[in-house]
From TrEMBL:
PANTHER family: SCP160, VIGILIN. Residues 830-857 form a coiled coil. It comes from Ovis ammon polii. This is Vigilin. Residues 1288-1303 have a biased composition (Polar residues). GO terms for molecular function: mRNA binding.
Length: 1322
């Protein structure tokens, strides 16, 4: 489709599109080699190799960019093939039809630019999406309402941030009630989102920093880029006073951490600038060009020589001062040189003023001021042009008197070198003047590359600008072109209701493109936003008439169509559409005349609209309703709670287990995300299939662990009260009993059975609690709700639940605390008998009252320990606050050297927190550092996956473990010096080598903590060091131990948690090495030896199974023994558990009558007897040939051989029909027992007689029917022809012979047709 270069917008004012001819030509995709062309671009992001849309297909250029294009283009750079009307019909060249592939990479290195259609360089695609996680601590959160998490103001802000930045946000609450935010997207989007998050979701602090006023601009940077980058990096808002404000204070707003970072960066920038000097020199504006020099060469030279930065204000800025920045000595040199130039020019130069037309000023200036620089370079004269917004036409020349005349000549030459002209042409003809892919204008550009053409949208004229002679020639050619087009082109406008326009266009423009291609016209359909019914058709008069007729026919057909709304639940829309639209494409292919429109997902609508012919719409409706019914049936869903640790086993290696369950049960199974706390697996599909999948998943869990399942009978009427409000009560029982799963029957089922599933001991505990609770509910249950601040809950519960258990035991009441997802986080529920509940209520209220009594206390902590409490954003303090009822602990600011620590909170909490801080200090003072030497090669194994083993040891023993850095060259014995805390650790030891036998530094692991804990942790670390043992296994069994693709050995390694190394086959070694933890090695060795025993037993069994027995059977009986599709021989093989091998017909070296049976000796003999029994029966059979008229064969065989199979089954015979081309086409062979053969022959002869009568009648009727007319033979096709092929250019090569099997080999020999018992298919 040819892009439209001009577009008339009804009611819109005219707009001018300024286009250089060469640019238009390149824009249209011509084969131009002009640097910087911007037509099709495979490399530019987002272009997808397509033209980028503007208001039309012509790009809008500014005056400067036009001049840049014009000046940067020379005639030799444009390569355009000018096509005459005769050449357009010529065949393509060989290179056009078959572009050469790119050369090898080695050749490309020396090539300037590879030619051909394959020359575009394909760049590797890099991932542009990143993910970052930000944490907002509880004390810094702006919105702390736990009940409104995921809604309210916080959610609105997150949505706004997502819409504004384009990043994706996911929020979650951490255990410490801090807010974790995961942001995904492109780097700049993530950084902007982070800044917004800090500004809007985190409480803001502010600080000021004072730096000298002259340094402020360095903080801002060029165009404010440095300031923006600093704000993004630190997630702060930095306010710098305006230049007219005398203040030197910079205000920083953000989080404490961000403020510190930003303050540090600002002070760094200021410190850097303190080292540099700045000087300003007043120089008259008129002398700036002499100081800069032609093309800024002189000032660049001064800057390079002195190392000083010189900033000369551009001509458009009215400032006169020149700013010098640099080291003081060099700066002084640079200032001196500039002053010298200024003084000299001031003495020697004079000026003259001349009048030059305003329209010619741009030619004097030239592209990017190049003409002015050229005059300055040649003559040393500066030309001053009045600004474009000024009406003045006076041009001032400044320079030495003897050079002014030459400069004046050049100014007038440049001013008069260009002219402007206009050609009258209807606006609708503009795109035809440009031509397809710009080829019409290309003819002009070849001759006159400096001509510039303006097409004015909505105006009937074309403006030409360029050298006078070139413009007149171009004008003549365009006028001739316009005259020719007016004579042979036409246009028409038709009215069609705008609601039909999108149907006229068709999917992806299919309909309108077909009409355009067939009629060779251009069709302009107004956009939907205009609501216009006017369609314009332009082109050849005949094509215009044809296109008009077709469009009107299409419109009238649409008026007769009907629309139907189908109600389909929105949840099924995506399924009906299918992945990448596959399923909806199938429906559209099945009903091509029906247009199916789904609502926008954001509308939450269930209405699917069908439009098309009435009958087709009805058929499509029924089809889609049936599809929806199937989807409803398959959308049954059940949830299965499975312990989190077993999810990986249910998934299996590479998803093998879950994939198998999905395929066999035909269900959809969704598992929770790995980082999710949910244990529920959701199964979707047909009800029966979902139940089957559920049973299989539960059985996997049961097999993997000591999972017990107990059924408890509790009256159905008590179920709701046992579950509690939003499941709070039952959840508290499940958590208390080690996370067992308690499953109640579906409400309304009438079942009393409650299922408890989990580890045996926990299940029993849960059963007792559930029965006790049910008994309480049956007698008389009493409930009371009390409220306490959420931060008190952990303190009330106590460490390991000790405090709350004490209350429970003393009163006998159950106390239920809210879960994280509960709306009312301060609500505590007490359940039980009334007197027990009242007593528990009194005890809890007394505890809460004490907690509400806020006191302030202080304690002394040595400043050397302060850092331990405040590092990692105060993690230790957060843990203390969490554990002891939200007590606030304040340490003095760093640098004050104060040892006073303030605690504020409930009295009991403050005392407990003080005690805990004292314990931590005692631990710190008793802390020692111990070395543990473990060879570096074992460090990864000791750490475990993602450091899990080492994390467990640090938790168990409350120690810190530090691993050394990896040594790059472990072969060297001399260790590089390690720098710690800025000091040289190797000081005083230079040149000395490590003592022989001492552990290398890269092997030493440091453990810090209490001495006894460090020793225990060291033992635990050493126990994790893998040990290697060797096991002798016969070499011939190694491949069986490894298994198919290593599956056997992988299974053993996973089972015993060891690494098993089998020697390479070429070593012929019997030794297998097992490496792992000492505790696992014995089990692994026993398992390996057990496997060896199994394999040896299999070998013995294999020897017994390999007994061979040969049976001599005439080859003519072989097909009967094999049976139809191998049915008979397969039955014998399965029944006797043997392998039966028939001789290869193509192998003449082996006897054709020998059948080999392999298996256990007894089984092979039984199989032989079965074969000989069949042979005995076959030997009694006879074969008879029957003459049967070939014209009735097809009738006797029947559709797909159904009739002949029925006859063969009925008479227990085999009937074979002759193949096509047989000597006697009427000869049919019947084989079977003598009496059966006779009966079968009688039957088929009777059928022949009956069918033959029909055949004779049919042939007689054919004589009176008109024979079909044969079409005249068409002239042979000329085939695909190309010009300039290698075989035409060089006589040594010839065109490939398409009939030659050597030049065009087949993909394989034709498969011989399968021989059927009743002959070939007809």
């Amino acid at each position: 489709m040819t892009p439209s270069y001009t577009r008339q917008t009804p009611g819109a004012s005219s707009r001018t599109v300024t286009v250089s001819v060469e640019t238009v030509f390149r824009r249209c995709g011509a084969e131009s080699r002009v640097p910087g062309s911007w037509g099709r671009s495979s490399g530019s992001p987002g272009s997808s190799g397509a033209l980028r849309p503007t208001m039309s297909s012509v790009a809008v250029l500014t005056q400067e960019s036009f001049a840049e294009h014009r000046s940067g283009l020379v005639p030799q750079q444009i390569k355009v093939a000018t096509l005459t009307s005769e050449e357009e019909s010529d065949p393509p060249t060989y290179k056009d039809a078959f572009p050469p592939l790119p050369e090898k990479a080695a050749c490309l290195e020396n090539a300037q630019e590879p030619a051909g259609a394959w020359s575009n360089k394909i760049r590797p695609i890099k991932a542009s999406v990143i993910t970052q996680v930000f944490h907002v601590p509880l004390e810094e959160r702006k919105y702390k309402d736990m009940n409104q998490f995921g809604e309210g103001e916080q959610a609105k802000i997150c949505l706004e941030i997502m819409q504004r930045t384009g990043a994706h946000l996911e929020l979650s609450l951490a255990k410490d009630q801090g807010l974790s935010i995961m942001v995904s997207g492109k780097l700049d989007a993530v950084m902007k989102a982070r800044k917004d998050i800090v500004a809007r979701l985190q409480t803001q602090a502010s600080a000021t920093v004072a730096i000298p006023k002259e340094h402020h601009r360095f903080v801002i940077g060029k165009n404010g880029e440095k300031l923006q980058d600093l704000e993004l990096k630190t997630a702060t808002k930095i306010q710098i006073p305006r230049p007219d404000d005398a203040s030197n204070q910079i205000r920083i707003t953000g989080t404490k951490e961000g403020i510190e970072k930003a303050r540090h960066e600002v002070l760094l920038i200021s410190a850097e600038q303190d080292k540099r000097a700045v000087e300003r020199l007043e120089v008259e504006k008129a002398f700036h060009p002499f100081i800069a020099g032609p093309y800024n060469r002189l000032v660049s030279e001064i800057m390079q020589e002195t190392g000083t930065r010189i900033n000369i204000p551009p001509p458009s800025v009215s400032r006169t001062e020149i700013v010098f920045t640099g080291e003081k000595e060099q700066l002084a040199q640079a200032v001196a040189r500039v002053k010298k130039i200024y003084e000299e020019k001031k003495k020697k130069t004079t000026t003259i003023a001349v009048e030059v037309k305003k329209s010619q000023h741009k030619y004097v200036i030239g592209p990017k001021g190049n003409s002015l620089q050229e005059i300055l370079e040649r003559t040393g004269v500066s030309v001053e042009i009045p600004p474009s917004d000024s009406a003045s036409e006076t041009v001032i020349l400044r320079g030495e008197p003897e050079k002014l005349g030459q400069a004046l000549t050049e100014v007038y030459a440049k001013a008069n070198s260009f002219t402007v002209s206009a050609v009258s042409a209807p606006s609708w003809l503009h795109r035809f003047i440009i031509g397809k892919k710009g080829q019409n204008l290309a003819r002009i550009t070849q001759q006159m590359p400096k001509v510039h053409i303006e097409f004015t949208e909505g105006e009937d004229r074309i403006t030409l600008e360029g050298p006078t002679e070139d413009v007149s020639v171009a004008q003549e050619q365009i006028e001739a072109m316009v005259k020719d087009l007016i004579n042979r082109m036409d246009y028409v406008e038709i009215n069609i209701d705008h609601k039909f326009h999108r149907h006229l266009i068709g999917k992806s423009g299919a309909n309108i493109n077909r009409i355009k291609d067939q009629c060779k016209v251009s069709v302009r359909i107004p956009p939907d936003s205009e609501k216009s019914s006017l369609i314009r058709i332009e082109g050849d008069p005949q094509g215009v008439r044809q296109a008009k007729r077709e469009l009107l026919e299409l419109a009238s057909r649409m008026e007769n169509e009907r629309t139907k709304d189908l109600i389909i639940e929105q949840r099924f829309h995506r399924t009906i559409i299918g992945q990448k639209g596959e399923r909806i494409r199938e429906i559209r292919d099945k009903f091509p005349e029906v247009i199916i429109n789904f609502p926008d997902p954001a509308q939450k609508s269930d209405i699917v609209q069908l439009r098309g012919p009435k009958n087709e719409v009805e058929k499509c409706t029924k089809y889609m309703q049936k599809m929806v019914a199937d989807l409803v049936e398959n959308s049954y869903s059940i949830s299965v709670p499975i312990f989190k640790q077993f999810h990986k086993n249910i998934i299996g290696k590479g998803g093998a287990n879950i994939k198998k369950i999905r395929e066999e049960s035909n269900t959809k199974i969704d598992l929770p995300a790995e980082n999710s706390n949910s244990e529920t697996i959701v199964i979707t599909g047909k009800r029966a299939n979902c139940e089957a999948a559920r049973s299989r998943i539960l059985s996997i869990q049961k097999d993997l662990a000591n999972i017990a399942e107990v059924e408890v009978s509790i009256p159905a009427r008590l179920h709701n009260s046992l579950i509690g409000t939003k499941g709070r009560l039952i959840r508290s029982i499940m958590e208390e009993c080690g996370g067992v799963h308690i499953h109640f029957p579906v409400e309304g089922s009438g079942s009393d059975t409650v299922v408890i599933r989990g580890p045996s001991s926990d299940v029993e505990k849960a059963r007792k609690q559930l029965l006790h609770l049910a008994e309480e509910k049956q007698t008389k249950s009493f409930t009371v709700d009390i409220r306490a601040k959420p931060e008190y809950h952990k303190f009330l519960i106590g460490k390991g639940g000790g405090k709350i258990r004490k209350v429970r035991d003393s009163t006998g009441a159950r106390i239920v605390f809210p879960a994280a997802e509960d709306r009312e986080q301060d609500l505590i529920t007490i359940i039980g008998k009334e007197d027990a509940v009242r007593e528990a209520q009194r005890e809890l209220e007394a505890l809460i009252q004490n907690l509400d009594n806020v006191v302030e206390d202080c304690m002394l902590v040595d400043p050397k320990h302060h850092r331990h409490f405040v590092i990692r954003r105060g993690q230790v303090l957060r843990e203390i606050a969490e554990e002891y009822g939200g007590v606030m602990v304040s340490f003095p600011r760093s640098g004050t050297q104060s040892d006073k620590v303030t605690l504020k909170g409930a009295k009991d909490c403050v005392e407990a927190a003080k005690k805990r801080i004292q314990e931590i200090i005692e631990d710190l003072e008793a802390q020692v550092t111990m070395e543990c030497a473990i060879p570096q090669k074992f460090h990864r194994s000791v750490m475990g996956p993602k450091g899990s083993k080492i994390q467990q040891i640090t938790r168990d023993f409350n120690v810190q473990i530090k691993f050394p850095d990896r040594e790059e060259n472990p072969g060297h014995s001399v260790e590089p010096a390690v720098h710690e805390n800025g000091e040289d650790a190797s000081e005083g030891r230079e040149g000395k080598e490590a003592e022989p036998g001492s552990p290398r530094r890269c092997d030493i692991i440091l453990i810090s903590g209490r001495k006894e804990k460090c020793e225990a942790a060291k033992e635990a670390l050493e126990a994790l060091v893998p040990v290697t043992i060797e096991v002798e296994v016969p070499f011939d069994l190694h491949r069986y131990i490894i298994g198919q693709k290593g599956s056997g050995i992988r299974k053993m390694m996973d089972e015993f948690e060891v690494n098993i190394h089998v020697p390479a086959p070429e070593l012929q070694s019997d030794i297998i090495a097992i490496t792992g933890l000492a505790a696992n090695l014995d089990r692994a060795k026993a398992g390996l030896l057990e496997r060896v025993k199994e394999l040896q037993a299999e070998q013995e069994d294999r020897a017994l199974r390999s007994f061979k027995l040969s049976v001599t059977v005439d080859p003519k009986y072989h097909p009967k023994i094999i049976g139809r599709k191998g049915a008979v021989i397969t039955q014998i093989r399965l029944e006797h558990d043997v392998n039966i091998q028939f001789p290869d017909k193509d192998d003449g070296s082996q006897p054709q009558d020998q059948i080999t049976i392999t298996g256990y000796e007894k089984n092979t003999e039984a199989a032989r007897d079965a074969i000989l029994k069949i042979v005995g029966e076959l030997e009694q059979m006879v074969s008879e040939d029957v003459p049967l008229d070939h014209r009735v064969h097809a009738r006797i065989i029947g559709a797909r051989g159904k009739a002949i199979r029925k006859i063969m089954d009925e008479f227990k015979v085999d009937i074979r029909f002759p193949q096509s081309g047989a000597p006697d086409p009427n000869c049919v062979t019947v084989t079977g027992l003598p009496e059966n053969v006779e009966e079968a022959i009688d039957h088929i002869l009777n059928l022949e007689e009956e069918y033959l009568a029909d055949v004779v009648d049919s042939e007689a009727l054919q004589l009176y029917m008109k024979p079909p007319a044969h079409e005249e033979s068409k002239a042979p096709s000329k085939g695909f022809v190309v010009r300039d092929a290698p075989w035409t250019a060089n006589s040594s090569e010839k065109a490939p012979d398409m009939s030659s099997s050597e030049e065009f080999p087949s993909f394989g020999a034709q498969v011989a047709p399968k021989t059927l018992p009743w002959g070939p298919k007809r």
